[in-house]
Amino acid sequence: MQLDWTTFFLEVINFLVLLWILQRFLYRPVMASLDARQQRIKDETARAEQLRSEAEALRLQYETQLADWAKQHEASRHQLDAELQQARSKALDELRKSLLDEAAKKQARDGAVIAAHESALIREAAGEAYKQAAEMLVRLASPALTQAIVDVFLTDLSALNDAELNTLRKAAQALIDASLVEVRAAHALGSALQERISQALSAAAGQALAPVFVEDVNLIAGIRVVVGECQMHANLRDELAFFRRLNQHV
Q1: Which family does it belong to (predicted)?
Q2: N or C: which end of the chain has fewer CB atoms below 10 A?
Q3: Closest by alpha carbon to 182, among 148, 226, 215?
Q4: Rounded-to-integer distance, Cα 236 and Cα 233, Å
């Protein structure tokens, strides 16, 4: 077999031309396409990784926010419970105070009613006692009792203090007539007793007085002396009236 060098070289040239054509029109575009595809894959992978990282960050953010919301909700619930408890306590305190005030008012009203009832009973009893005492004193009244009361009056008249003496003397000095002095007696007084009364009044008044003596059975027993604006009572009727007025103010 004889080698044909011309054919051989032509074949080599054809092969080289083929390699160049493949390199030029097939290999490079294919490699460029593969490189572009690989780059796209890398870009997509990077993008996916970025998205995954962002998703993970969002998940962590949401979880953190949910945890914060849960804490805030728990804190709000505790605060609401505390406010409700405080409101309940305040309402109970106000209700308790209102009940105590109402009880105190009721007790005061009951006490006032009881006191008024007791006062009415006391006044009624005192009025009945006054009536019985007056009836008894009327039965016991006598000239001797009147004279005994006059003796007590004269003793008290001689023992008047300075203020009482000044009042009596001013009333006597204001008289237009010294005879405008009246002595009312429940029973007729003897001349000797009238003289004693006149002398005692003149001595106490610091000037001569000429009292007019009048019998007044309404006095029950004792006397009533009027010197101008000054009145002196020493009789059972005025004493009973005084105690009756005190009873009316009970």
Answers
A1: Belongs to the ATPase B chain family.
A2: N
A3: 226
A4: 9
CB count within 10 Å of CB 187 equals 20
Task: State the burial class of residue 169 (Cβ atoms within 10 Å of its Cβ: 0-12, 13-18, 19+).
Answer: middle
d(CA 106, CA 46): 87
Show the beta-strand stretches assigned E in the chain: 181-185, 212-215, 222-227, 230-235
Domain boundaries, given as residue ranges, for the chain: 141-248
Residue 153 near residue 223 (C-beta atoms within 8 A): yes
CA 49/CA 43 separation, integer angstroms: 10
Which pair of tokens denotes residue 120?
């009415």
190-238: per-residue pLDDT in tens?
A: 999 999 999 999 999 989 888 999 999 888 888 999 998 898 988 888 8
pTM for this prediction: 0.48
DSSP label at residue 27: I
Which uninterrupted H or E stretch holds 127? helix 28-140
| Strand order across the beta sheet in which 230-235 lies | 212-215, 181-185, 222-227, 230-235
